[in-house]
Amino acid sequence: MDRSALADLLRRRRERLDPADVGLPPGRRRRTPxxxxxxxxxxxxxxxxxxxRLEQQRGPHPSAAVLGALARAxxxxxxxxxxxxHLAGQPAPARHSTGDHVSPGVLYLLDRLVDTPAFVIDxxxxxxxxxxxxxxxxGDQTGHTGRARNHNWRWxxxxxxxxxxxxxxxxxxxxxxxxxxxxxxxxxxxDADVESLVRDLTDASPEFARLWAEHExxxxxxxxxxxxxxxxxLLDLLCEHLTSDVxxxxxxxxHPRPGTDCREKxxxxxxxxxxxxxxxxxx
Length: 283
Description:
The relative contact order is 0.13. This protein starts with a helix and ends in an 11-residue tail after the last helix. The chain is 43% helix and 12% strand. Strand 3 (222-229) and strand 4 form a beta hairpin. The longest helix has 18 residues, at 170-187. With 283 residues, it is an alpha+beta fold. It has two domains: 3-87, 434 Repressor (Amino-terminal Domain) (Orthogonal Bundle); 104-272, 2-Layer Sandwich (Beta-Lactamase), CATH 3.30.450. The chain is built from twelve helices and five strands.
């Protein structure tokens, strides 16, 4: 781990960003250029003290998850992200496959969708980042660890993950999840992360095993989703899936179905909704 170079990279990339670049209000006049340390820490969901120690060359060895979060917070390109990993003594994630990196362009679009739920997932179904409206509508999906970070795993192994969806839609969602994962499995056959996820799901869920055996294949590009929100009731949404050619991540945008009251309900959620912004320190 090259602590000096790592600290220098973090500081210089922090100083080149304006609050508007990451969807933050300008706030009061700033005496120095760029983002403040606490703002970067909040964007990466780590404590300010943890981030400060990294910039002061006295922090611990950051994990791959923390490095991925910092790369997103600082809007690093893939080359810059790889360099960040190397300085921290970690192997860089594989490109054009599953991983924690989200390109600056996709993050820019996500920041601008202030009144529309949107989130980014990788090709295995791991939620990488959500905007505020997505968290208010669906709950925070980014705080899970291990297998629980994967929405396919939660769907088939955690009954509580289905609470916000009408029960009559569960069968359709199950088939959609499996068919999309089957497409990834075929495209990346032999990759250890794909093989292990399918194997573990088959062992853990008889429903998944039954659907997997049917060998349905369908890449998810656009669909519909009904979500039951605890405050405003049923949201009738349409989904657009926009996959980046840069890193393979998919930006999912949820928008109201025309002719419904969903737009008014989303506006109400934006007003009454709250979220926990306290960062959680990760090793």
